[in-house]
Design a protein that fits this description.
Elements (H helix, E strand, L loop, with lengths): L1 H14 L9 H9 L4 H13 L9 H9 L5 H11 L1
Helix pairs in contact: 2-3, 3-4, 4-5
């Protein structure tokens, strides 16, 4: 009985993912480093840290922040981010 219970628990632990899909801080810094302005850097980093989704299901705010990171000025980044939402 104990062996069966242990086997079931092991199987469940292998099939149920822990939040390993969440972005870690180093990955977030990598995304933020691509930003062309300090404003966009902070925006991407802050939204990335709280992001809790799979790669293909990123939040609208995160996707907009990544678009804003491409803007060359702070004002441009703000305009891109807020118009994207």
């Amino acid at each position: 009985m104990l062996k069966t219970t242990a086997s079931v628990l092991l199987a469940l632990s292998l099939t149920i993912p822990e939040k390993s899909y969440a972005l870690d801080y180093e990955k977030c810094i990598g995304y933020a480093a691509e930003a062309k302005t300090e404003y966009a850097y902070n925006l991407v980093l802050n939204l990335c840290v709280v992001e809790d989704s799979y790669f293909f299901n990123r939040s609208k705010q995160f996707k907009c922040a990544m678009k804003a990171a491409e803007a060359g000025t702070e004002q441009g980044a703000k305009m891109v981010f807020y118009s994207c939402l």
